Amino acid sequence: MRPAIVQVRDLHKSFTRGTESIQVLRDLTLDVGEGEFLALMGPSGSGKTTLLNLIAGLDQPTGGSITVGDNVISEMSESELARWRTRHVGFVFQFYYLLPVLTAYENVELPLLLLPLTKEQRRKQVENALALVHLSDRMSHRPGQLSGGQQQRVGIARAMVTDPTLIVADEPTGDLDTKSADEILTLMEILRSQLNKTIIMVTHDPKAAARAQRILHLEKGQLVLDTAAVASH
Fold first, then answer.
1. Helix spans in the chain (H)
2. What is the pLDDT at residue 228?
3. Alpha-helix runs per DSSP H in 73-201
């Protein structure tokens, strides 16, 4: 594995429900190599989405540390995490979360509005991102005019447009038919192999997980198995 771009050490995460403390992650240590495509699997409640959210800086651990690149994100404040996420994390969701009143171009442009870029700089980055996902001819279409697979490709373009350090994907093929899911997974493989993007994907689908380079299984908040994906890369 390449040098780790994500380092998780002795991670703990618990939530309080009433007077009860619920332990979601326990003593979890993990390295993710730069340019690696990693799949996280496990039953509902195993902690995989919680782990993904912690690595993406959407939540903070109860204990332990998380380092992404040169940043110890587990020590950041909420405002620092928000700024860090804008520049370093691209998000891909199961249900796309595109704004229906905006065009594909405008949806992809949204993350760039938080950065100090000119309109021309934003235009170039949006057009490049949409070209990457083969949607240059759909940039003026609204989500309702696109298929599910096309909407997810817009979602991937939006995740890529800031040139992030890390792409996190939560069930990115869960709402797609088999053909569209295969196209999305092929696109994610291209992001890794050609653009050296580090991708962490949560999935329930063994076929989707097999497209990754490595599969980690979580159970009751702990890693129980680490296997190489079946597919050759």
1. 48-55, 78-88, 104-109, 119-132, 148-160, 178-195, 206-209
2. 53
3. 78-88, 104-109, 119-132, 148-160, 178-195
Q: Is residue 32 within 8 Å of residue 198, measured between CB atoms? A: yes
CA–CA separation, 192 vs 64, rounded Å?
28
**CB contact set of 105 (below 8 Å; sequence gap of 6+):** 126, 130, 139, 140
pTM: 0.89
Residue 73 domain boundaries: 4-227
Q: Which residues of 148-171 are buried (b: 16+ CB within 10 A; e: fewer)?
A: bbbbbbbbbbbbbbbebbbbbbbb
CA distance linking residue 209 with residue 37, whole number of Å: 10
All residue ranges of the chain with pLDDT < 70 are 1, 225-233
Structure tokens at 195: 């653009």
Q: Tell me which H or E stretch contains 141.
A: none
Contact 132, 160 (CB under 8 A): yes
Domain-located, residue 232:
no
Is residue 233 in a domain?
no
With beta carbons less than 8 A apart as the criterion, state whether 189 and 233 touch: yes
Distance, CA of 202 to CA of 172 (rounded, Å):
8
- Residue 233 CA to residue 224 CA, distance in Å, equals 24
H/E segment holding residue 73:
none
| Overall domain count for the chain | 1
The answer to whether position 11 is within a domain reads yes
